[in-house]
Write a structure and sequence with these properties.
The complex is a heterodimer of chains A (about 200) and B (about 325). With about 200 residues, chain A is of the alpha/beta class. Chain A has one domain: Rossmann fold (3-Layer(aba) Sandwich). Chain A is built from 6 helices and 10 strands, in the order ααβαβαβββαβββαββ. In chain A, strands 1-9-10-6-5-2-3-4 form an 8-stranded mixed beta sheet, with helices on both faces. In chain A, helix 3 packs parallel to helix 4. The longest helix of chain A has 11 residues. The termini of chain A are far apart. Chain B has about 325 residues and is an alpha/beta fold. In chain B, about 35% of the residues lie in helices and about 15% in strands. Chain B is built from 11 helices and 12 strands. In chain B, the strands form 2 sheets. In chain B, strands 3-2-1-4-5-6-7 form a 7-stranded mixed beta sheet, with helices on both faces. A 5-stranded parallel beta sheet of chain B has the order 10-9-8-11-12. In chain B, helix 1 packs across helix 11 and helix 5 crosses helix 9. The mean pLDDT of chain B is about 90. The chains are: A alpha/beta (about 200), B alpha/beta (about 325). Chains A and B meet through helix 1 of A and helix 1, strand 2, strand 3 and helix 6 of B.
């Protein structure tokens, strides 16, 4: 059949070229819905060193504070408050997944650190809402494992068994947006863009 | 003439070349249509109703069109050995050859091969000189003296390894030279080059390692020299000429071009150094020289005139 039976999709060659360049051989509607630009971001080599530097000389609230990095943060901070669902030395125990509203309020906090916490929470939005209510105007530094680092070995997935989700740049931004928040600074950590082990986002509550 | 082009909807050099031919056909007063081979019914764009005078095949052809008694000409965009090597292209070409009146190719070295399969005509390999031109005012230059740009589509052996190695020689003579790698597809290719750059401390001369840049014209205008590692073809690197930039690639052995090189690190380095030494003190002169080279040897208007002459042989 040589006759063009239906209306052409594009009215000019320039329009056709633009469509192909922006979405390749993909359907334009699909591309508009599914393709989300990730900005160029620096990659931090060492998450621990980055967080320690951030905490240096400040009054810090460390949410999820029973890991090894928290010990270093505690040493670097001027004043240190730790919150976790697990009891420990100087730790305020809070079930942040189900009762984030029970988190303590420390008026003098200058920097909040929430490192590798969100991926453990079944209700991350409620947690962010509670944090925003308690610490409005303060800066929180969030880090999460990056979905692009997902891997398998044989028939096994490589992931801690107590994680309940993976975040990518786009999905973490979507979560923040849904609760009225916006990242002011974003970085990868430990690895090249998209494949890095994790993401770091600074957010003003 | 009413000309129907058949091309896959993919972001590739083939797509850009085809659409530039289509636009030039419009400028020369022809009516055009662009069809996606997997959909022989709905055109991607069309300026006419009904049956065309000729079908131009760029990648595949819809089976709807196989036996419609309209002349068919196939454009040979790929390189013959690569077409065999990828296991698909040459087979598709041979399958379609009996339905075609003739082939059109753009490099004289390929002519004997394509002509052995079907009667083949050579046309000028042109670029759209209306689109690829010297920008005024000039955009900010990339860093480096010279700022060297690699912007071919990367895939498999099409990658800038040899150009990076050539830079090791270039910086001994031109320590300010910087190589900017664009169009990196990411994934394993990105990781490989990132490792090479870190391991070899190539970051002393690699100015950028970036993904696709949508505005190729501005990108070219920001460089001094455009390089390619392609061999034995040269693909779209010649767009540099339109923007008044030197093009250096082992596959480019056309006419008496003074900056030819071989597929070998030392030869690529030598061509880069010679080119910069010739023009570093007079960039305006360089712009005019390379622009004129493009106008003389790579004008898409010539490509289309010569191609239409071929179509006419089979349509009257």
């Amino acid at each position: 059949m040589s006759t063009a039976a239906t209306q052409p999709k594009f009215s000019s060659v320039a329009e056709l070229r633009d469509s192909i360049v922006s979405s390749g051989n993909l359907d334009a509607a699909w591309a508009a819905k599914m393709l989300h630009k990730v900005p160029e971001m620096q990659s931090v080599k060492d998450r621990a060193a980055f967080l320690v530097e951030l905490a240096k000389g400040k009054v810090v609230l460390d949410i999820g504070c029973t890991g090894a990095i928290s010990k270093q943060i505690k040493l670097a901070a001027k004043t240190y408050y730790g919150v976790d669902k697990v009891a420990g030395d100087g730790v305020e125990v809070v079930d942040i997944d189900h009762r984030p509203d029970k988190m303590p309020l420390h008026e003098d906090v200058e920097q909040i650190i929430c490192s590798e916490v969100l991926e453990h929470l079944a209700n991350p939005g409620y947690f962010l809402l509670a944090l925003k209510k308690l610490y409005a105007g303060k800066e929180v530094c969030i880090t999460v494992p990056n979905a692009g680092a997902y891997g398998v070995r044989g028939d096994c997935e490589i992931v801690p068994g107590d994680h309940v989700c993976w975040y990518s740049y786009t999905t973490l931004c979507a979560l923040l947006t849904r609760y009225g928040l916006k990242a002011s600074e974003c970085q990868w950590y430990n690895g090249p863009p998209h494949k890095a082990e994790g993401l770091i986002m600074k957010v003003t509550l | 003439m009413k000309i129907s082009h058949h091309m896959k909807r993919e972001n590739s050099g083939l797509m850009h070349t085809t659409l530039e031919i289509v636009e030039e056909e419009q400028r020369q007063g022809h009516q055009v249509r662009v069809m996606e081979p997997s959909n022989g019914v709905t055109p991607m764009m069309s300026e006419f109703e009904g049956t065309p005078d000729v079908h131009c095949i760029h990648s595949q052809l819809s089976p709807h069109t196989y036996h419609d008694n309209v002349s068919k000409i196939m454009f040979m965009h790929g390189e013959p050995l690569g077409s065999v090597g990828n296991g698909i292209s040459m087979r598709a070409i041979v399958d379609l050859a009996p339905t075609c009146e003739a082939f059109i190719c753009m490099r004289k070295e390929e002519w004997p091969i394509w002509n052995a399969i079907r009667k083949t005509f050579i046309v000028t390999k042109g670029i759209d000189l209306e689109r690829f031109k010297i920008q005024d005012p000039a955009p900010p230059r990339m860093n480096g003296a010279p700022a060297i740009l690699y912007y071919e589509n990367w895939r498999g052996q099409r990658n800038p390894l040899l150009v990076c190695l050539a830079m090791l020689e270039v910086i001994k003579v031109l320590p300010e030279a910087r190589l900017h790698l664009y169009n990196c597809p990411g994934g394993k290719m990105y990781e490989t080059f990132q490792k090479l750059i870190n391991h070899g401390r190539w970051y002393t001369f690699i100015g950028s390692l970036k993904s696709q840049e949508k505005d190729a014209v501005t990108l070219l205008n920001r460089a001094d020299i455009v390089v390619s590692g392609l061999y034995p073809l040269y693909a779209r690197g010649i767009e540099a000429f339109g923007c008044g930039r030197a093009f250096i690639g082992p596959g480019y052995k056309e006419y008496d071009y003074p900056y030819q090189c071989d597929l070998e690190v030392h030869s690529i380095a030598k061509a880069i150094i010679k080119c910069w030494m010739d023009f570093k003190d007079d960039r305006k002169h360089a712009e005019m020289y390379f622009r004129k080279w493009g106008e003389k040897h790579h004008n898409i208007a010539d490509t289309v005139k010569e191609s239409v002459d071929v179509y006419r042989r089979y349509t009257t």
